[in-house]
Design brief:
Bound molecules: iron/sulfur cluster
Strand order of the largest sheet: 1-3-2
Number of domains: 1
Structural class: alpha+beta
Helix content: 10-25%
Largest sheet: 3 strands, antiparallel
Oligomer: single chain
């Protein structure tokens, strides 16, 4: 099983910022693009997934219970920071520690 499906630590740990072109209706979309209702505008060049800039953070697109069973409700359309992040990054181990899980 993909260990990320039993984790979700990154989705409850980090800010997720990306270019508005990745929004639905934008000029650069993964699948259908990120729903605009799930982001807040930061600047003309950045939007942020709702919920990732509050304490404690939790991305609005995350469903389930971090550390047991989770899913991204917009997986096919998730933005580039989420696509680029993975267990090979040191920050993954840090995020997992935050929710009481060992590094992968
Ligand atoms: S968009 Fe999906 S993968 Fe990215 S932080 Fe939110 S729930 Fe996690």
């Amino acid at each position: 099983m993909n260990p990320c499906l039993g984790c979700g630590a990154c989705c409850v740990s980090f800010r997720v910022d990306f270019h508005p072109a990745e929004l639905s209706g934008g000029t650069f979309q993964w699948d259908t693009g990120v729903p605009p209702s799930m982001v807040v505008r930061v600047t003309d060049r950045f939007v942020r997934m709702c919920g990732t800039d509050v304490q404690p953070p939790r991305c609005v697109a995350l469903v389930g219970n971090p550390g047991s069973e989770v899913a991204c409700s917009i997986y096919a359309s998730r933005p580039s920071p989420c696509r680029e992040f993975g267990p090979e990054h040191e920050a993954c181990a840090r995020a997992r520690r935050r929710i009481g899980l060992p590094a992968l």
